[in-house]
Design a protein that fits this description.
single chain, four-stranded antiparallel β-sheet, 1 helix
Length: 158
């Protein structure tokens, strides 16, 4: 009974109202490019921790997570569903995992080549391309998080 009372009186952690991201890991250092149905479908997983002081991260109806390609600034946009608050405080924390596949339909991992706009084709002259993602999120109040960056990884251009 005393243990229950102590848990009920504990102070929830206080976080700033803006979401804060911290980069955790990338599941692999290379992935075959998205080039059609003949290649093996592989997945790259980006893991990051988050906190949000007012607990309004995630929304079932709005785009709220943005991955920016380091090579050309192209943004891939995603949605984090609403994250329920647990306990007596308003702040939330946890981990987000973004799973990206190299399927032909997503084209998250296309090799780019100098002096051309052609992408996602096999190349022996340029066997690999390197990139990273910059990542930001926006909560329902419109607050932007800090920007985190994955480490550089390789796209295999065969």
């Amino acid at each position: 009974m005393i243990l229950c009372l102590m848990a009920a009186c504990s102070t929830p952690p206080e976080y700033p109202n803006e979401p804060i991201l911290n980069y955790k890991s990338l599941s692999r250092v290379s992935i075959p490019q998205s080039s059609g149905t003949t290649n093996q479908i592989d997945t790259l997983v980006i893991r990051m921790g988050f906190t949000d002081g007012d607990g309004d991260l995630g929304d079932k109806d709005s785009i709220n997570i943005f991955l920016t390609d380091s090579r050309d600034g192209f943004q891939h946009i995603f949605k984090i569903n609403e994250i329920p608050q647990l306990g007596s405080g308003t702040g939330i924390s946890g981990e987000i995992a973004i799973k990206l596949t190299n399927s032909a339909s997503t084209k998250y991992f296309c090799c780019t080549f100098p002096n051309t706009r052609v992408t996602c084709i096999p190349s022996t002259e340029y066997p690999q391309d390197t990139m990273s993602y910059a990542i930001r999120v926006r909560d329902r109040s419109g607050n932007w998080s800090n920007t985190i960056r994955t480490e550089t990884f390789s796209i295999l251009c065969q």
